[in-house]
Design brief:
2 domains; 9-stranded antiparallel sheet; 9 strands; about 30% helix
Length: about 220
Amino acid sequence: MKFQRSTLILMGLALGLTGVVYVFEIQGKTQQQEIQAKQQQIFSFPKDEIQSFTITNPQQTLTLERVTNADELKKSPWKITAPIQFLANPASVDYLLRELFKNQSNPSDVNSGIQKLTVSAEKIKDYGLDTVTDKIEIKLKNNTIHRLNLGNIDFRGDSLYAQIDSPQSSGKEVSILVISKDILSTINRPLEEWKLPPEIPQTPPTPPTPQPTPRPSVSPK
């Protein structure tokens, strides 16, 4: 069967248009998934932009910042600057950052993920956000400051109420987030767990015990 040239051109255009539509649909879905993922993170800015952060809880106030010294950088990318000067444990810092930037939604749990509540300003004390004792202040490389205030644990017991950047509402309502309570155990680490563990000196191998050289046997004459 022979097709006319115009028919072949139309078929080619149709196939090309189908491919373009498919690509745009895929890109659109991917972008939408990325947007939804960011909405399920506590913070959406790149964590590589963090210059320093301060953790405040009833036990202590701890400040950590990025290391710039080349020799220190070989051991840890972070250091404690208050209440002591000490290199930080990278594992402890990474765990905190993972909690701040992870996607909190779980497809198998319809109740998972960050939820946003709008409540009257006079009710904020019911969520433990009027007098905050647990909070994180993050300073970016461009000197922008972000704050996360943590309040009470919710009625289910697996989440807690929080506010980002302590928004000051001009009206009678304020916004509150419901986030995973996993971050509480992270910011309440004792100071020792934030410090870089000492290097364990390598024990030199034990030399083998010398064995006596057997004497050659003497044949009787």
